[in-house]
Amino acid sequence: MEIVLSGIRSTGHLHLGNYYGALRNFTRMQDEYRCYFFIADLHSLTTHPKPDDFHSGVKAILSEYLAAGLDPEKVSLFVQSSVPEVSELYVLLNMLAYKGELERTASFKEKIRGREENVNAGLLTYPVLMAADILVHRAHKVPVGKDQEQHLEMSRVFARRFNSLYDTNIFPEPQAFNFGTDLVKIPGLDGSGKMGKSEGNGIFLIDDEKTIHKKVMRAVTDSGPTQPNSIMPESIQNIFAIMKVVSTPDTIAYFTDKYNDCSIRYGDLKKQLAEDICKQTNPIRERIETISQDDGYLRYVIEKGTTEARNSAHSTMLEVRKAVGFKSF
Ligand code: TYM
Predict the structure, then answer these.
(1) What is the 265 CA–ligand 1 centroid distance (Å)?
(2) Which CATH code for domain 209-289?
(3) Catalytic residue status for 111
(4) Mean pLDDT computed over 5-22
(5) 93-125 b/e (C-beta count within 10 Å ≥ 16 → b)
(6) Model confidence at 114: pLDDT above 90
(7) For a substitution probing ligand 1, which of 148, 177, 185, 245 has the most ligand atoms within 8 Å of its CB?
């Protein structure tokens, strides 16, 4: 059976980008594949969170993962730092990763822009740790949004390099996937770019209706089309891009026609978008509230998932160590 691995950084809360980029169709995925889902707490250390915030971030993401539909009886759910084999593989893969290629990574260039005071080696080798996460379970498929495409390509490069250097076929080449459809990029509603935690423009699964309405009504728009069938500016395309994942095709067609004949009222468009987002997020938010209170359940889920993930990682590392030439006396 093919192996699926999915990861989310443990910073803040899950937003619509995370949900539609990586988590949608959980139910199908956990029935069809052997799934490992984890919370990337080591990755979140690049920004030096305070110890208390660090742990609450992990707990929040865990509750939100479960509320979004993960079934711990079907998938292994764990925290990255509880599987030390990941760190060991990270060290080994670092020997195969070149400074030049890491410096050329789009996400590295983007992350260091404007924060020259903390360009640490963890940021530079971020894709190597990600490759270790994936390869330690010999995953075939990795559900991600479009922003992670290059990281997946690098994971394939490291897998190939390892296999070739040590003349082995331990690692399959992992593919980014979004359940048979193109990878998506959910934009922010601030006029450009993607929705993200660091971008400060997230609509979160945990947001209540009032907050969602407020955020959506603040979305950047222009003064409206004046020519029939004119090209939409990016800010309006962004509103439609979110509609595409939360609204019905009829709703989208209705507002597209209104845009094309210049009779659109952005207030109506936003109100509809906010309602459609709430329809998707309300049941998830209610489940988050219950699950996050249940420490016993969270502990059970993590203990089970960690044992399963460690077994998988351990068996990979036995082969990896042998291939590299580690021997006991
Ligand atoms: P993170 O926490 O930034 O995002 C988690 C997942 O959400 C997707 N995503 C988006 N998809 C579409 N539109 C958006 N606006 C958007 N924002 C986020 C991301 O593509 C990702 O799938 N490096 C990873 C965490 C990670 C990981 C891994 C993922 C660590 N190791 C191994 C997969 C496999 C990250 O920063 O995700």
Answers:
(1) 34
(2) 1.10.240.10
(3) yes
(4) 94
(5) bbebbeeeebeebeebeebeeeeeeeeeebbbb
(6) no
(7) 148
